[in-house]
Amino acid sequence: MPDYSRRIDCAIDDSATIVEKIKQQRSDDAALSSTLPPEAYNSDAFFSHEMEKIYRGDWVFAGHISQIPNVGDYFTLDIVNEPLVVTRGPDGVSVMSAVCLHRWAPIVTGSGNAKALVCPFHNWTYDLGGNLIGTPYMNQAAEFDRKQCKLPRIRHEIFHGLIFITFSDQVESIAQRLKPLNAMFDKYQVAELDTAYTLDYDCPFNWKMAVETFMECYHHSAVHRTTLEDSFPGRLSYIGEDGPGWTLCHQPLRKNGELSEVLTEGLIPLSGFSEQDMRQIDLMLVYPSCLIGLNPDRLSISQLLPIDKHMTVWHRLVLVSKDSSAQPGFADTAAAMKASSLSIIDEDLAINAAQQRGSLSRLAAPGRLGHLETTVWHLANYIRTRI
Question: Of 151, 145, 175, 149, which Cα lies nearest the Cα of 163?
Fold first, then answer.
């Protein structure tokens, strides 16, 4: 007869309780690891806690310098309800609040090139460094001096062309944390690459689910059985050692696979790669949510921007060599790359949305992890250190 005496824990929305649950799960042995508790993906209180401790307290990826190659170039993004603008001015790259100092409308959205940034509400105008240089009809405002006004600057660092930002003045340098990756990023010439395309889409699930799925190939045989599994069988994947700021999953091509299954028609492979390099795609997570696909002819770099506990914006940036971007017909190549990625994206969106629904069950509990999911354990360990 079934045992009906087992107590079922109800879903909770108390941050301190969830934090304690997560910390009690800690294990130094990956073979004994399990997922975070379902409440960590469904609690408003815990979501607010991790946004403060992780997204405001650590480094997050903002973009690549190839998005702003010329003076006047800018792009925008929202991180933890902070509208930001990244510009290239005469003095270099700046990251600033995009909230007007007047009545808080974002002064600019999207991306482009401008000599100055003009708020669409009342035409208050800022230079590319954030200095307030134009305030129409403010001459009767007593003791108002626009020369003393400047958009708040956001701390940033550029690591091999990648722009990282943080709202903390205490966290260590991201360049120092990622120093062991210098050789790998040099190998992939990350600072020298061009932007092929960007792609933003909504994910109706918690940001951690998106990170976890990207960083393991175990799901290939079920979710991607007609797309990725043929060329990159999940059973062949293996997990590298994690570092102080990252973890790696290696995704080899099948034994008798052709290089055409790895390379993209119309792109020129990067130079200096071994035969093994040419037959493998590496997946990297730079904590907390910068996802990098390292291909021998391109890089895919994504940032997950949480909106709430059940909604995330996926911001994807694809980079290629300057030789590739200079090829005749490159615009068509980029469009084809973008289109071909959508089927895999749709497969992951469907399964993660289903996973999110299942995690709301009061019968849901932490699940055991296998050796192909060690990166999921690595992310959980990172979260434990931050919360």
Answer: 175
